[in-house]
Amino acid sequence: MGKKTDKQSIKFKKMHGLGNDFLIVDGRMRSTAFDTNQIKLLGNRNLGIGFDQLVIINESSKDEISAHLNFWNSDGSESLTCGNATRCVADLLMSEMNCDRLIISTNHAEIECRKLNEHLISTNLGKPKILWQEIPLSTKCDTLSLPLKDSPVATSMGNPHCTYFFKNIETISITKIGAETESHSLFPNKTNVQIAEIIDKSTIKTKVWERGCGVTMASGSSACAVAVAAHRLGLTNASVKIVLDGGVVHVEWK
């Protein structure tokens, strides 16, 4: 017989934003840490629980901040921000604290969250970064027309994004273009990838490849990056509807 070992029981919640799914662990009362191999196993959709990102809720050192969030992709790599996961945690904390507004910090920024109605949480992901060294890119270039096939746009929402615009994204493989672009040498920290189709001045159809995760049904920071890229190109209004595989996100760039 094998030696009996003690197993640690960890409570978690499984949540999603339009199919962009998360494993959420509350580390405020009990310090919790996972190594890369553990995250990969937990994130495996056949052998583990399965998720796009792991989120750990931690105490904040500031009184005005309700909690601090840390994020990891399903491949074990760390992410500085995640819009949809922040919305999910904000919903949990608002119910816990009986409020409709709070601030959550991440390793990227302090994010204001508001409850618009019973089912809708809004987050302010902050000012997008559009300079090549901020994203960052490995080479100085025009972020509105990257030196790649089809001239995509680069944006940072705290994590790097590369957005391609096509007339019909149903004819394009997000899996192929996402895998090829994510690890391109132009992106020293890798990148999230979107393919986008302008429907009209207020609507953009989008498919997403997340860095360290792959194809996902939705992404809050990707939706923001697409909205910023399209508006910078003069293709859309500052307020748009992003139609993702998992549903619709409304984005306003003030």
* Number of alpha- plus pi-helical segments: 4
Rounded to the nearest angstrom, the distance between the terminal CA atoms is: 64 Å
Total strand count, please?
15
Task: Compute the CA-based radius of gyration.
Answer: 18 Å
Mean pLDDT equals: 95
Low-confidence stretches: 1-5
String of helices and strands = EEHEEEHEEEEEHEEEHEE
Label the structural class: alpha+beta
Strand content: 25-35%
Largest sheet geometry: 8 strands, mixed
Shape: globular
Helix content: 10-25%
Report what the structure shows.
- With 254 residues, the chain is of the alpha+beta class.
- Strands 1, 2, 3, 4, 5, 6, 7 and 8 form an 8-stranded mixed β-sheet that branches. Strands 9, 10, 11, 12, 13, 14 and 15 form a 7-stranded mixed β-sheet that branches.
- Strand 9 and strand 10 form a beta hairpin.
- The longest helix is centred in the middle third of the chain and has 15 residues.
- The protein is globular, with a radius of gyration of 18 Å.
- The N terminus is likely disordered.
Summarize the structure.
With 254 residues, this protein is of the alpha+beta class. The chain is built from four helices and 15 strands.
What are the SSEs and their pairings?
Blueprint: E1 13-17, E2 20-26, H1 36-43, E3 53-58, E4 67-73, E5 78-79, H2 83-97, E6 101-105, E7 110-117, E8 120-124, E9 153-156, E10 160-165, H3 174-182, E11 192-200, E12 203-210, E13 214-216, H4 220-232, E14 239-244, E15 247-252
Parallel strand pairs: 2-3, 4-6, 10-11, 12-14
Antiparallel strand pairs: 1-2, 3-4, 4-5, 6-7, 7-8, 9-10, 11-12, 12-13, 14-15
